[in-house]
Design brief:
The protein has helices at 31-38, 47-62, 80-88, 98-106, 123-132, 142-151, 189-201, 223-232, 259-274, 286-289, 321-325, 381-384, 413-416, and strands at residues 5-6, 17-19, 24-26, 29-30, 42-46, 68-73, 92-95, 114-116, 136-139, 158-163, 205-211, 239-241, 279-282, 293-304, 308-312, 332-334, 342-347, 356-363, 371-375, 396-400, 403-408. The protein is an alpha/beta fold. The protein folds into 2 domains: 5-47 and 290-416, Lyase, Ornithine Decarboxylase, Chain A, domain 1 (Beta Barrel); 48-288, TIM Barrel, CATH 3.20.20.10. The strands form 3 sheets. Strands 5, 14, 15, 16, 17, 18, 19, 20 and 21 form a 9-stranded mixed β-sheet that branches. Helix 7 (189-201) links the parallel strand 10 and strand 11 (205-211). Helix 2 (47-62) packs parallel to helix 9. The longest helix has 16 residues, at 47-62. It is globular and about 70 Å long.
Length: 422
Amino acid sequence: MATTQTPVSHVWPLGTTLDADGVLRLGGCDARGLAETFGTPAYIVVEEDLRSRARRFLSAFAQRTDDYEVHFASKSFPATAVLRLFAEEGLACDVASGGELHLALNAGFDPKKVHLHGNAKSIAELQQALDAGIGDIVVDNLVELERLERLVPAGERQRILLRIAPGVSPDTHPKISTGGPNTKFGFNLDDARTAIDRAQASDRLDLDGLHFHIGSQILDLAPFRAALEVVAQLGDFRTYNMGGGLGVAYTHEQSAPEIEDYVERKVSLMREILGEGKRIADEPGRALVAHSTVTLYTVESVKHNVVDYVAVDGGMSDNLRPMLYDARYEAIVVGRPPGGSTAVHLAGKHCESSDILIAGADLPDPRPGDLIAVPVTGAYGHAMANNYNGQPRPPLVFVGDGEARAVVRRETYEDLTRRDLP
């Protein structure tokens, strides 16, 4: 077997190696051995990749400001082991439901380092947050503001941010743009002024600052200026949360801003537009977790129609992003030398014509039984996994230093009926 290492592109997890025979090692583990041990489909998570990116975000802010907080946007990868790792690294946590709040607290986050998002928070979720003593509730609308004020006990105060819709849309897919003029999230500018007046007059709410989030998978940092200039018109506050949204490269020909450049842009804009002495909060999600994970599949069939279809044992039940907003990925055949590739549709096993993981994937002579590896699946893969067609959800496997351990087991058929009542 050849031992010469061939380059892997920047889309693979840190420390990934590939030899001239196509043998892929993730976290020091042979991908073929991982498939044999844990089965496929499986999410393989390189632990050091997660830790390294968390440390880069924290370091980038610490080098540029003394007053900051980095919140992991947990919706991107809401797994206990991932949350626990980020709590250990010193991140705070952004949750968007009672369930995500439960996961964050269970994973060990200090309640004071958790804040609650959501455009339709229930009374029960607000009460859950108050009972837990979380740091911030990010208030989305006037109904919620009134509801929260009624729930806070007399003599106590809950710290809040107001989420603002600045009317700025970045260059991203419309389905993940969240700050435009017709978004479902946050206060428009007129309602924001009303909300600010009400919150500042309340003896039960502590208005700490303003929040905005313009979208996800942002590769051009310019729109942050326009959004902050709008928000700055609403007054002077201690804290400004500029959301997250830093995009990542999903294929080898793509590039994305570096973490340090993204942080520098935001901190510099804060100083320029708002002046000194402001506290900045940030909510990276995808940029923390996307590159950490590779999904392994087994080829079940190869079919020659107008185009060639290579069907694997997973699909839209473990990665909905290509079907939701045309997300693009790449793949390799593990254990086969690269070269001589043909364009095929890498298809899933589900009863939907849209169940195509990669249209026009370049794969060398794919055959039934081959092991396929798809990188950059850490963000929203596990988060959106589902049981369509009765498919059990895949396991999560942490790898590092040549060791592998399952942190979420594979579902069984029995799990599909476990909640049934007689």
